[in-house]
């Protein structure tokens, strides 16, 4: 059974930083494209960042490019999201996702999410 467990969320002031972690189990981690998404209250879930199976390729939403960095450690079955220069509009529940086919997360595994709140 696949489990994705996010951690590292919390309350931070604008301009601050947080590092999210996602620990995966029940899958061959290196076979999965990994990503981070977020959902703010009253809004649809949106893409934040994705990283290739080997970690050599990354992509970001325009709203976070230059502030957030996604990385992974296949030996630890983990993916990370370093978030710097946080803004109030970054407030959301952040989810990690594992996509076996690299098909845009249409049938991905999802974690339960971790809350990030950025105060102004």
- Unreliable segments (pLDDT under 50, ≥5 consecutive)? none
Main sheet properties: 7 strands, mixed
Quaternary structure of the protein: single chain
| Cα shape | globular
Distance separating the two termini = 40 Å
The total strand number stands at 11
Rg is 13 Å
Order of helices and strands: EEEEEEEEEEE
Structural class by helix and strand composition? mainly beta
What share of residues are in beta strands? over 45%
Description:
The chain is 0% helix and 51% strand. The protein is mostly beta strands and 120 residues long. Strands 2, 4, 5, 6, 9, 10 and 11 form a seven-stranded mixed sheet that branches. A four-stranded antiparallel sheet has the order 1-3-8-7, with no helix packed on it. The mean pLDDT is 97.
Short note summarizing the structure:
This protein has 120 residues and is mainly β. It has strands spanning 3-7, 10-13, 18-25, 33-39, 46-51, 58-60, 68-73, 78-83, 92-99, 109-110, 114-119.
Structure keywords:
120 residues; mainly beta; seven-stranded mixed β-sheet; four-stranded antiparallel β-sheet; 11 strands; 51% strand
Furnish the topology, listing elements before pairings:
Elements: E1 3-7, E2 10-13, E3 18-25, E4 33-39, E5 46-51, E6 58-60, E7 68-73, E8 78-83, E9 92-99, E10 109-110, E11 114-119
């Amino acid at each position: 059974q696949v489990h994705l467990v996010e951690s590292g969320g919390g309350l931070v002031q604008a301009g601050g930083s947080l590092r999210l972690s996602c620990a995966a189990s029940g899958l061959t981690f290196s076979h999965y494209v990994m990503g981070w998404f977020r959902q703010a209250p009253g809004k649809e879930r949106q893409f934040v960042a994705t990283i290739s199976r080997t970690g050599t390729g990354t992509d970001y939403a325009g709203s976070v490019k230059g502030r957030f960095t996604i990385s992974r450690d296949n030996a630890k079955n983990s993916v990370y999201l370093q978030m710097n220069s946080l803004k109030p509009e970054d407030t959301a529940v952040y989810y990690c996702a594992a996509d076996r086919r690299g098909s845009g997360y249409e049938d991905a595994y999802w974690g339960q999410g971790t809350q990030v709140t950025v105060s102004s």
